[in-house]
Structures are given as structure tokens and as C-alpha cells.
Amino acid sequence: MLRLYNTQIRDKQDFLPLEEGKVRMYVCGPTVYNYFHLGNARPFITYDTLRRYLEFSGYQVTYVQNFTDIDDKMINRARAEKTSIGELAERFIREYFIDADALNIRRASIHPRATETIPTIIAIIETLVDKGFAYEAEDGVYFDVSRMPDYGKLSRHNLDELASGGRELAGDEAGKRSPLDFALWKKKKEDEPAWPSPWGEGRPGWHIECSAMIKQHLGDTIDIHGGGQDLVFPHHENEIAQSESANGKPFVRYWLHNGFINVDQEKMSKSTGNFFTVRDLAGQFPYLVLRFFMLGSHYRMPINFSTELLQAAENGWNRIRTCLENLAFVAQNATGQADVASAEAAQQLSEAIRRAEADFVRAMDDDLNTADALAAIFELVRAANTAAAVPGLPAASLENASAALLKLLDVLGLDPQGLDERDAVPPDVLALVEARAKAKQARNFKLADELRAQIQARGFVVADTPQGPKVSRQ
Predict the structure, then answer these.
(1) pLDDT value at position 410?
(2) Rounded to two decimals, what is the model's pTM?
(3) What's the total number of domains in the chain?
């Protein structure tokens, strides 16, 4: 059974959705004012993988990931570029999908936008005001944290301690009764986009946007809410406060939070400037190498970024792809006759497939342990490579191993058949391979060696196999 670490209880729990066989899942998406960086990519990849595994396990998943298309960052970027908020959002939503698609992040069931959810946002705020959980101030409407006795139950923050150091939380917000109270609605300022409301023209606060999108598309109570650790407080804490106060029902059953990506042991973020956009990194490494890099660590653990670690991830990913290429090549060209040795190898490979599949499921059931799941895949790669070298091994055995690998990789969102254009063997290299094969047949080994050197100079290697020459990138 799948067990997930629930941030709210600080422990793993058996996963039991509210409705049998169905999962309602929400993940905080990007603020669409820029390309997303590697730190943003981690939750996108993590929860896409969880969704894939839930579906692999037989669940019907309704997956919602939002776009924050109105906030201070959006306003400031639009001003700087002398464009509208809407045009800026459209641009970077398009750019998001370019990178997300290349990372093999599947489209969500629904991608709502904050600006499309204004009526629901206003309705929730009205309910909170009517119930006495919110109040109107000079510059907006605020949630009264003191009215919620269990505020802090997700982050385990102590209200008194927060209040004592809360001056910096107040910012430039006027009329708040407490520095801990947070904005639900911000009254219009000059040159800012605004919508009509019972409290005058304005725009929503950040926290209420997610609560409204969840309510509108998934209901009052959902199974899973995911995001980065930096969202535990105040964002997710405030979501709980406003949603449960308005609806009178539990908000989220399982809270999941992924760890940070660090650069030189410091959290990667746009605010500190020590970040790398996925778009920039994709100029150095294939997108799926970036995904593979993420999955090599448990999602709750921090990852330290370096070019060397990405290079190691690329080597590991290429090892899997090379195995699959070899299996296809040997199976296609298999001509040997089966014997006792090949029959024994086929049996061992079949057992390795069963063992890898069981180990994979065991790892993923243990709080989405993708690192151990990849270890199970590599064990199957090792067994498959060993079996492929046995003459006379039935093609069906090799095809079964390939199918098993592809099935498990698909759960992780790793598609070895979605080749990066840099992996394609150019026609001139293929011509050199063919010329070298003819030179060897003519026993002109000097020419064959010269042609091999030319192939290597172009970044490829050629291997002589019983089935013929096989070329691949170095």
C-alpha cells in the first residue's frame, strides 16, 4: 500500500483517498512573470511523478495545477516591459508549457488562472466576513488569525512567537489588527489592475487564490495538496485557515512538500539570484537529464546543484538508453539457436524482471522513493545487459525486458524514445560506419581504423557485434 509523508502529522500514513479509486490533487503552480528555474521544476516533476504513480496504481486522478497571473511580481514586470498583465501572463504560460512539455510533465486535468476565479474568491471572502473571520480595513480585507484557535497546525509555528517578531510581516499594509493577519483582498492602487467587489475595486491576495481555485474545481476537501517546503508557512497555513473557516470542513487530507535545490548549500531562488532557468540548462543538457537528476534523490531531501552532478545524471540516463538500444538491436538481429545456456539466461532474466518490478513498486509505495525505484531499474539494466550477451537468447526474452524497463520508466516520466535531437546519428556518420564495414570485409584494416577515428572525431563510437556494427554517441 502507498504510504505518504504528511507534513501536518510529521509522519508517513497509508494513503486512503476520500472517495475510493479517485484522487483529488492540487499543486501550486508558477507565477507567470518569467521562465521557471530548476528549483521551480522540482515540485512540477515531483507531483507529476506522484500523479503518474497513482494512475499506474489504478486511481483516477483529477490533477489541478494553477497559474498565478496577478500579484506584485506580475504588476512590476508588466510595468517594466510596458505591457499588460494579460499579455505578460499569456507569454509566460506559453513558455511554461514549452519547458514543461520537454520535461515530460503531463498537462494537468485543469490549469486554472487566478484572474478567472475572481467570483469564487469574492464569495469566499464574503463568507469569511459574514462569519466574523475577516474584517475590512483601510487598504483591504484581512483574515483575523486570532479567530482560528488551531492556526499554525501545519507549520507548528507558535502564534505568540510569531506575533512577537511580526513587525516585518506587516509590510506596508495599513489597518491590520495584528501583524499576523493576512490580506484576502487588496484595494486598488494607482495603475494596478482591479475588479469590482463589495469592498471596492481591488485584487485578491495570494493565499485566497489557491483556496478559491481548489474549491471551484475540486470541492471543499481534497486528498493531496503539494508544493515546496517554502510554501508551508505562510501560504499553505493561510490556505487552511481561510478554507476551513469558510467551509467548516477539513481542507486537505495529505500535505506533501518537496525539499529545496541548493547551490553551494544555499537555497536556489530568484530573490537571491543564484538560480538557473530550465531553459538555460537545456542548452547544456537534454531536458530529460534534468528530470532524471531530480528523481535521483528522495523528493523530501535537499538536492545540491552542480554541473558535475548533472553530468553524472546524464551518464546514468545514457546507460539506461544504451541498454534499451542494445536489447532492440540484439533482438532484431537474433539468429543463434537456443541451448541450455541461453535457456538458463532467459529464466534468469525473467526472474530479474519480476524482482525489479516488485522492488520498484515497493520503493514507490514508500513515500514515492524514486531514488530506490531507479536503483531497481538499474538492477534490471545490469541483468538485461548480461543476458543480451548470451548467444541464442530468445528475442522474446529481450523484448520482455525492454517492455518492463519502458513501463517502469514511464511511471517516472522518463521516455528514452523521446530522443534529444543531439542524439540522432547524422547521415555523414552513418556513411562512415558503412564505409568502415566494407573496409573490414575487404580486410583493409588500416582504412577501417582511419574511418573509426573519423567517426570518433564526430562524437560517436562504433561497436562490432555479432549482429553487425552498432553506432552511438560518445
Answers:
(1) 98
(2) 0.87
(3) 3
